[in-house]
Write a structure and sequence with these properties.
There is one protein chain. By secondary structure, this protein is an alpha+beta fold. It has three domains: 10-122, Butyryl-Coa Dehydrogenase, subunit A, domain 1 (Orthogonal Bundle); 125-245, Beta Barrel (Butyryl-CoA Dehydrogenase, subunit A, domain 2); 254-399, Butyryl-CoA Dehydrogenase, subunit A, domain 3. Helix content is 51%, strand content 15%. The protein has 13 helices and eleven strands. A four-stranded antiparallel β-sheet has the order 4-5-9-8, with no helix packed on it. The longest helix has 34 residues, at 254-287. The two termini are 36 Å apart. 48% of the residues are buried. The mean pLDDT is 93.
Length: 404
């Protein structure tokens, strides 16, 4: 791979124009309706599948981009349209990331296409990690996986919470504890195939934002899966456990490996929300007149917009750097992935708040989209690692000290 560059080639630009047209023409006009309904926007997902945007081939092509920039840029464009609908369409990629991070090539080839299905038979995927008492601290997962050597099966029991596509997905990737005394290093990831008995949806959550994205509990009661559903295979897992028992250093947990891979994409979504709010506020400030002049001519407004644009561009640079490094196989020695997610999430919250302030009373009512963008933005300082956890990761990386 060559040196990092922000210059996109014509193929990348063509894809982004196509995605932007979908976000502008299909997603954004439907955003208010599905936010109010708080339901999965199946017609939008079906349209995305019909044109090939929601498909294994599209995601595979994005992942094959040698710069690593295409998929996060797609995330930004989709979230610019609407973050809730974007997550409804892109949420399956988190399950894909879980399979790719932990699975063998054979498992990836078998299960990843099933995370999408086909235009006439849409499938969804979910990545199930968080629990009521184990959100930021994934080492304390209570969901257990017990192996039965005689039948070569695993039995899963537990309850996952805050799961995107939880319970409605066809493919659930579940992280469970096999050797609890080893913490995160004693955990493993399992694919739970469609229609497996014992897996059900628990509570569906009513959320502040991203309301078109389905979020629910996933309940596992004596869920039995064959040994082939252990991602990475039993030999690799047994070797990892043996190294952990000997006190040898090992790779990060499968959950953490998945989050490391997805953080630049999550940061890109936050940038998309911030960009939408900034653009709307800029247009409003040019048209809205107060005291006989457009409010853009007032420094109090113009300087807000200048700061908004600066932070958005800085956030984009951070996620592009992290995505480029991840694709090139360069380690995040200073927590670059966490930097991108931390800064982008907090930028989205700040920018959308400034947009509300610029619109005044109009920014506070649902007739205008900036209040929805503000509600949507907040989750980006919480899910896939809170801002506090991102700062912890960065602080440990730059200091070499196990800060608590």
């Amino acid at each position: 791979m060559g040196d990092f560059s922000m210059e996109l080639n014509e193929d990348q630009l063509q894809v982004l124009r196509w995605v932007h047209d979908f976000a502008e023409g299909v997603v954004r006009p439907a955003a208010h309706e599905w936010d109010e309904r708080e339901e999965t926007p199946w017609p939008i997902i079906e349209e995305a599948a019909r044109i090939g945007l929601y498909s294994f081939d599209f995601v595979a092509n994005c992942l094959a981009d040698p710069t690593g920039l295409l998929l996060p840029l797609v995330n930004e464009e989709m979230a610019w349209g609407d973050a809730g609908i974007a997550l409804a369409i892109l949420g399956s990629t988190l399950g894909v990331a879980g399979i790719v991070a932990a699975g063998t090539p054979e498992q990836v080839a078998e299960w990843v296409p099933q995370c999408f299905g086909e235009a006439g038979d849409i499938r969804l995927a979910a990545f199930c990690v968080s629990e009521a008492d184990a959100g930021s601290d994934v080492s304390r997962l209570k969901t257990r996986a017990v192996r039965d050597d005689a039948s070569d099966t695993w039995t899963l029991n537990g309850t996952k919470t805050w799961i995107t596509n939880g319970g409605i997905a066809d493919i659930h990737v579940v992280v469970a504890s096999v050797e609890p005394e080893l913490g995160a290093r004693g955990q493993a990831s399992f694919v739970v195939p469609p229609n497996t008995p014992g897996l059900s949806m628990g509570q569906k959550f009513k959320k502040m934002g991203i309301r078109a994205s389905h979020t629910a509990e996933v309940v596992l009661q004596d869920v039995k899966v064959p040994g082939t559903c252990l991602l990475g295979g039993e030999d690799r897992f047994d070797e990892r456990v043996a190294r952990a028992r000997e006190g040898k250093h090992g790779k990060s947990s499968t959950a953490m490996a998945t989050f490391e891979a997805t953080r630049p994409g999550v940061a890109a979504q936050a940038v998309g929300i911030a960009r939408a709010a900034y653009e709307y506020a800029l247009d409003y400030a040019k048209e809205r007149r107060a005291f006989g002049r457009p409010i853009i001519e007032r420094q109090a407004i113009a300087f807000k917009l200048a700061d908004m644009r600066t932070r958005i561009d800085a956030a984009r640079l951070l996620y592009m750097r992290a995505a480029s490094m991840a694709t090139a196989g360069k380690p995040f020695t200073a927590g670059e992935g966490s930097m991108s997610k931390l800064f982008a999430g907090e930028t989205a919250v700040w920018v959308t708040e400034q947009a509300i302030q610029i619109l005044g009373g109009c920014g506070y009512v649902r007739d205008y989209p900036v209040e929805r963008w503000h509600r949507d933005s907040k989750i980006y300082t919480i899910f896939e690692g809170t801002s506090e956890i991102q700062r912890l990761v960065i602080a440990r990386a730059i200091s070499g000290v196990h800060i608590q």
